[in-house]
Amino acid sequence: MNTNLGLLGKKLGNTQFFNADGTVARVTAIKVACRVVGKRTLEKDGYSALIVGIGEKREKLVNKAQKVFFEKTKQTPAQTLRELRLAPEVVAKYEVGQAMKPSEHFQEGQKVDVCGMSRGRGFTGVMRRWNFTGAGKDTHGTHEYKRHGGAIGTNMTPGRTFLNLKMPGQYGNERVTTLNLVVAKVLDEESIVLVEGSVPGSKNGIVTIRGAVKQKRAK
Fold it and tell me: 167, 185, 211, 217: which has the fewest Cβ within 10 Å?
């Protein structure tokens, strides 16, 4: 589990800019204007975490449980909430209602993990879902079998189809984490972080940016 400090943001889209040496950096812009909405402590909840929120929600759309929560913390309702598991000493540094600036958490060249919901593609075949090359050939009398996955059985023994076999089905619309992306630039005034490469989800999708957990250490 990633317990590094991070921010909650909204994916704006892709763009590019020129570096000082003339090379082009292809980046994804993420707006990270989030704030601390609440806390979880070891004494009260059994674990330590920060509850961060982004955006604003009309009071008409807030259910009763959320309304009581925001009234206790004296905060305006947030559109989206996430819990970030952190060490107790890190949680103690933040106060409820405090705005989280990107420059305080990220710097250029830092590696981060970005997590979000991937774009839903519906029910797809094996060629799109699992990158199969297709079964059979175009010759030798084969009909209507170009985009199939091939045989799925195992003859007489064990006489059944194994579990977790790659077959057609629902593709996308699942939680995906892209590891070890590099922070290209931090725009503190606009509350935007530019990350090299692509991140999961579509435009205006909610993503979480946290420090990388699997980066290679220098020998």
Answer: 217
- pLDDT range class, residue 198, cuts 50, 70, 90: very high
Alpha-carbon distances of 37 from 55, 69, 149, rounded to whole Å: 12, 9, 49
Handedness of CA 173, 176, 181, 187 (dihedral sign): positive
Of 39, 9, 186, 5, give the one whose Cα is nearest residue 115: 9
SS3 134: coil
Give me the residue label for tokens 């220098």. 218
Q: Looking only at Cα atoms, what is the longest distance across the chain?
A: 73
The residue type found at 53 is G
Vertex 18, ends 14 and 20: CA angle to 5°?
145
Kindly list the structural domains of the chain, giving each domain's residue range(s) and its CATH number in brackets, ordered by start. 6-121+178-211 (3.30.160.810)
Q: Rounded to whole angstroms, how far apart are CA atoms 99 and 189?
A: 13
Q: Residue 167's CB: how many other CB atoms inside 10 A?
A: 12
140-185: per-residue pLDDT in tens? 777 778 888 888 888 888 888 899 999 999 999 999 999 999 999 9
